[in-house]
Design goal:
Elements lengths: L4 H7 L3 H6 L1 H6 L5 H21 L8 H15 L8 E2 L3 E3 L10 H11 L19 H11 L3 E5 L2 H13 L3 E5 L5 E3 L2 E2 H7 L3 E5 L7 H7 L4 E7 L15 H11 L3 E6 L17 H6 L4 E5 L10 E5 L1 H9 L2 H5 L3 H13 L3 H7 L1 H6 L3 H18 L4 E13 L8 E10 L4 H8 L6 E2 L1 E3 L2 E5 L8 H14 L4
Helix pairs in contact: 4-5, 6-15, 7-15, 8-13, 18-20
Bound molecules: pyridoxal-5'-phosphate (PLP).
Pyridoxal-5'-phosphate binds next to helix 8 and strand 9.
């Protein structure tokens, strides 16, 4: 006999009765009364909704309700935002927080977060200072730029630049560069937000200097080039180079801006990462303004960096939008610390995790996988096996879309569990592990597993082994 919804609804106990259950009273030793009450209400509401929608079609017994309250209270003691282990091999993984910070960046955050700082105070004059002054000199030194400004992220940098330089004016962009970065950053939309009018030129696969030249009018405010960060057009293609665009811009007296996306301060071609000019090279090739991210290839915190001509950047410093787009002191401290490492390229490559992971040699990765496997094997139960495979990792973060970096993968097998089951269990351990399933294997990439991850990775695999122990 099936019970009517009404009957089941009526059988759901009242809050007070649930609170009187001895098992629930027991929770009061660990959690406050308002907290326990809140969770009881949430559980009962959920039950009523499940009955209402038909997903719950039987009487919930006390044991089930107590179990739900227990789970609800437990989940409250774990923060929502927390560390995970990136075994995906994608170095700049936007969903996993992009770049892990260097030790000096971490220390810089600590130093200014636990007390007061000279964020906007000029210690020499004793007067009000500018938060932007802390990194402008460094950015000029590292890129050869005349001026620099930092904001919350690169999307903000593009919006600020367009709003300042091209509001109510036309901005010429190639049809091959009307990019969507993801998370709804689309060049045409950003353009309309900033009050500039988009003028598309050329074709998806080919745009020439003469296309820009032909589109220039009295209302043209800017020529914009956008780094096609996350895709590539191959075949019969022609892209107007920066020097060509710069020649057109100079002739017409119109500035040329480049949204460089990832932005790189050092030449990575000796490490097999080719085709990404440095920001200094972009400026030398004639860009009047370049914007890029702080947390992609640069390996720092979330930030948008603007470099280029002083006469273009000065008005941005006075624009009312800047206040809304400004960077906070913690990111500023960590950006400064990251940039300071770039004064010595070798130091940057050794200390900035993103650069270190991108430039590992095949031999280093192979040794790394061996180290991880040796460390884990010693302490894992027999039900877990770890097998090496050659594979490929990617840069991520909308940089080098076609680049595949050779790496060493570690396949994890637990009992007779399917790779998808292992993937889903490891995603929910105390320190979640994110790997990938490929060709019926669950794989972890040695490249993106940090040294500090070894011990939590072991703990997570031990947890998974218990859960998948063949019950
Ligand atoms: C990533 C990217 C952006 C957005 O940068 P955020 O720092 O994420 O705001 C804009 N343009 C290009 C070309 C990008 O690659």
């Amino acid at each position: 006999m099936t019970l009517s919804r009404q009957t089941i609804l009526k059988s759901i106990p009242k809050v007070d009765r649930v609170l009187d259950l001895p098992e629930v009273r027991h929770f009061l030793g660990q959690f406050s009364r308002p907290e326990v009450l809140l969770v009881i209400r949430q559980v009962l509401k959920h039950l009523r909704e499940s009955v209402g929608s038909g997903t719950q079609s039987s009487l919930p017994d006390n044991k089930t309700i107590i179990g739900m309250i227990d789970a609800g209270l437990k989940s409250r003691s774990v923060p929502s935002l927390r560390p995970v282990i990136n075994g995906s091999g994608v170095v700049v993984h936007t969903n996993l927080g992009r770049s892990p910070l260097s030790e000096s960046a971490e220390q810089a955050i600590h130093a200014v977060s636990s007390g007061y700082s000279n964020l906007e105070f000029d210690l020499i004059s004793g007067e009000r200072g500018s938060r932007y002054s802390h990194v402008e000199g460094l950015l000029c030194e590292l890129t050869g730029s005349e001026a620099a400004l930092v904001v919350n992220n690169n999307a903000a940098a593009v919006i600020l630049a367009l709003s300042t330089l091209a509001q109510g004016r036309e901005v010429i962009v190639s049809r091959g560069e009307l990019v969507e970065i993801g998370g709804s950053f689309r060049i045409p939309d950003v353009m309309s937000q900033s009050g500039a009018r988009l003028v598309e030129v050329g074709c998806t696969n080919r745009t020439h200097s003469r296309d820009y030249l032909g589109a220039i009018t009295d209302s043209t405010g800017l020529l914009l080039k956008v780094h096609t960060s996350n895709f590539a057009i191959v075949g019969f293609t022609a892209e107007t180079t920066l020097p060509e665009m710069s020649a057109v811009g100079r002739e017409a007296g119109i500035p040329v801006m480049l949204d460089a996306g990832s932005g790189c301060l050092i030449d990575l071609s000796p490490y097999g990462i080719k085709g990404e000019p440095t920001i200094r090279q972009y400026l030398e090739s004639g860009a009047d303004l370049v914007t890029f991210s702080g947390d992609k290839l640069l390996g720092g915190p979330q930030a948008g960096i603007i470099v280029g001509q002083k006469k273009l950047i000065e008005p941005m410093k006075k624009h009312p939008l800047l206040r809304a787009l400004r960077m906070d002191k913690l990111n500023l401290a960590s950006l400064e610390a990251t940039l300071r490492l770039y004064r010595d390229e070798r130091l940057a490559l050794a200390e900035i995790p993103t650069l270190r992971m991108l430039t590992f040699s095949a031999k280093e990765l192979s040794n790394r996988a061996d180290r991880i496997i040796r460390y884990l094997r010693k302490q894992l139960p027999k039900t877990v096996s770890l097998i090496r495979h050659p594979g490929e990792s990617s840069a991520g973060g909308g940089s080098f879309p076609l680049l595949q970096l050779p790496t060493t993968l570690i396949e994890v097998k637990i009992n007779v569990s399917t790779p998808c089951r292992i993937e889903s269990v490891l995603r929910r351990t105390t320190t979640p592990v994110v790997g990938r399933v490929h060709r019926d294997r669950f794989l972890l990439d040695a490249r993106t597993i940090l040294d500090a991850d070894f011990s939590p990775l072991l703990a997570s695999l031990q947890e998974a082994a218990i859960i998948l122990s063949g019950k």
